[in-house]
Amino acid sequence: MTWVNAVTTRESTGLELDDIQSGALHERPSPYVGSYLLLRIDDRAAGRELVRRLHPIVDSGRPSPDPIHDAWITVAFTYQGLKALGVPQDSLDSFAPEFQQGMAARAAELGDVGESSPDHWEKPLGTPEVHVALAALSPDAARLRTVLEKARQAHQELPGVELIWQQDCYQLPTGRTSFGFKDGIGQPAVEGSGIPTSNPKEKPLKAGEIILGYPDETGELPPMPTPAVLGRNGTYVVFRKLHTRVAAYRQYLRAKAATREEQALLGAKMVGRWQSGAPLALSPEQDDPELGGDPHRNNDFHYADDLRGLKCPAGAHARRANPRDALDHEGSVNVRLHRMIRRGTSYGPMLPEGELEDDGVDRGIIFVFAGAHLKRQYEFVKTQWLNDGIFIGAPVEKDPLVGPNDGSGAFTIPRKPIRRRLQELPSFVVTRGGEYCFAPGLRAMRWLAELDT
């Protein structure tokens, strides 16, 4: 296997925003509507023509004052997709092993077992048929139609390219997830992106943590696919469709809490934030909607002053996913090596307020993660922090919201004088499918379109 780090010092400095797909760096709009499309390439020449047509409609990562650029398309390829385009084998071999294997092959390690196993995934997710992934996001339906029409024109009249799956998404009327929580808070800033940090206590990540071809937090250049024109300014993308069991979640809170106020507190303890987005670290006793809605304050906190978890439990979802400075005292874990860009969008209608019975409708979250290191970013966080509790001293405890719980799990809420331990945690999230993809830079897209193998 070839792992190439050879990039000149000149090439390593300065983020080349004009060559980076906008979806890798920029937040989705709010409100938003969007659509995810998966395509299969049956004819190599048609696949290359598709890439050639898509190239001009993929925006770069440089901010634009033009409102139309609030709507964009991001293009990514699976390993099988790059193979279908005729990428030479030595180049294919230079990609991360996890990407080459694909998410379905790594399901057991990721905790996608039982109902979440690939045997039960929504087809064609997790199959070799998925070659190209398109994500179109927009502030409104009119602009979404415009970018989707561009995508349709790109693959129409190409008999060797087939649209095999589509999932529409949209911001729920509440502006929150199907579980009722404000989402999208706590993204890391990326050095050189021009996008300011929302947490003044956290300096921007080195660009190489997210975009290939630049030094990362270790000071080194991450392994990059070859040739350099293919790998540079690209990023790995993790795509997940997660079905949420909202009725089961509400039933559990009601069974464990006597009042609505206690239910809200219990939900906040499990998540690490109140439904408004206000973090427990800053407002541990009651919700503070003004704080939750203030992007200058709702991410301005650390956990080092709460190592016992009396304000925010160490096992809460948000704290597991990003422990911030809570592990600094151990000296063995550099949390910054496991940070990544996270994009969440909702699909399916809300379960009506107060409804405790499942209505049989598919609803949930499409999660997209971007980073330069599949293994030490997404896979580490999923396996070591969300699915396991060793790092917080509770080996048998999984993430209470998104962990692969099976009805036998527990969740500890520290408090004085006696902690509370919730038992019999069921599964609130079921994996419906996923893919590992690679979103190349714009020059790389031209290279793919012009392949002559």
TrEMBL record:
PROSITE patterns noted in UniProt:
DYP_PEROXIDASE
InterPro entries reported for this sequence? Dimeric_a/b-barrel, DyP_N, Dyp_peroxidase
Keyword field contains Metal-binding: yes
In the record, the note on similarity to other proteins reads: Belongs to the DyP-type peroxidase family.
Keyword Iron found: yes
Q: In this protein, which residues make up the domain named DyP dimeric alpha+beta barrel?
A: 71-153
Q: Which GO terms describe its cellular component?
A: cytosol
Concerning SUPFAM superfamilies, the annotation shows: Dimeric alpha+beta barrel
Protein name per its UniProtKB record: Dyp-type peroxidase family
Taken from the record, one Pfam family name reads DyP_N
Cofactor entry? heme b
UniProt keywords (A-Z) are: Iron, Metal-binding, Oxidoreductase, Peroxidase
Region annotated Disordered, chain positions: 279-302
